[in-house]
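Contributing new records

If you add data, match the layout below exactly. Sequence lines come first and carry their own label; structure lines follow with theirs. Keep one chain per record. Anything else will be rejected by the validation script.
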Amino acid sequence: EVQLVESGGGLVQAGGSLRLSCAASGFTFDGYAIGWFRQAPGKEREGVSCISNSDGSTYYTDSVKGRFTISSDNAKRTVYLQMNSLKPEDTAVYYCGAISTWYGSSWYFSASAYDYWGQGTQVTVSS
């Protein structure tokens, strides 16, 4: 059974930090990239960051560059998203998803291309 389980969300003040974790099981980890997406109320799901487990390449949307860092521990089959200097506009439900690396990096921020999703974790940044 494929599972992606997010954890680490919570309430934090602006300027604070959180680390999200995405634990994966049930599929060939190094054949996939793991992406973090977020969805605020009334908005579409937005790609935030992605890491390829086959070559370690990382990708970020412009609004989080320099503040967020994605990393992967292949032995633990877990991907992390370190979020620093958080802003109120980062408030959303954060989801991790898995996409086959066969697609290539141009698809990594396209939610429709993802095969598997976690249940999401809430991140709330207060001003």
